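Tokens help. Consider this.
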Amino acid sequence: MADDSRSRSASGHGSRGARPLWRRMLRWLWSGAGIALVLALAWAAGLVWYAADIPDEVADPDTRTDAIVVLTGGSERLQTGLSLLLADRADMLFISGVHPSLDLSAVLKGTPDLPDDLPDSLRRRIRLGTVAGDTIGNAVETAVFVRDRGLRSLRLVTAGYHMRRSLLEFERAMPQVAIVPHPVFPERVRQNDWWRWPGTTLLIATEYTKYLLASLRHFLTGAGPAAALPPISS
């Protein structure tokens, strides 16, 4: 009887000492490693969604706007903006993010399919923004340009993979302005099978992470960048 009692006591103690599997899993999930794994899986799932949602065409190529805005960062963007201006899709073209040392002739130099003798009447419809150094700066710089001229609509030209974050910043900086996205598609970006190309994968992953950080910033602050730059000269 004593042996049986000790046996039951030892068995009961063992049952109380062993944690159920679900409790051990829950405890692990709440550990640093578990949280990191969950966040990594969520980030990866979001990356797949982000890549699948990158536009592969221009949804609205024809609507006329008050201005065309090109964000520097690729010859395709500038060429597209100039082509839209030549097609009279807007009264003026604003190129945001130009290096301060460059003038219009230097910016246009080397642009494919652009006539060497671009008429002065067209040149007078082009403005350069030389303050912005990133996407937030593009939005603020453009907001000043739009405000100073009383514009109500613009066509935004940037790379397809960059469009979602650009729209986030621009719509926050200019909530009363109608923005028509006009993505371009650089040949070097293989967005249809992005996971097969390390360079494209890194590019999209980086842009997706920047988009998440921008979204978090807007969520925490509840406001977009303030258009606090000095007026851009005509």
Q: What stands out?
A: The CA atoms of residues 169 and 209 lie 15 Å apart. Residues 5-16 have pLDDT under 50 and may be disordered. Residues 198-221 form the longest helix (24 residues). The two ends are 102 Å apart (CA to CA).
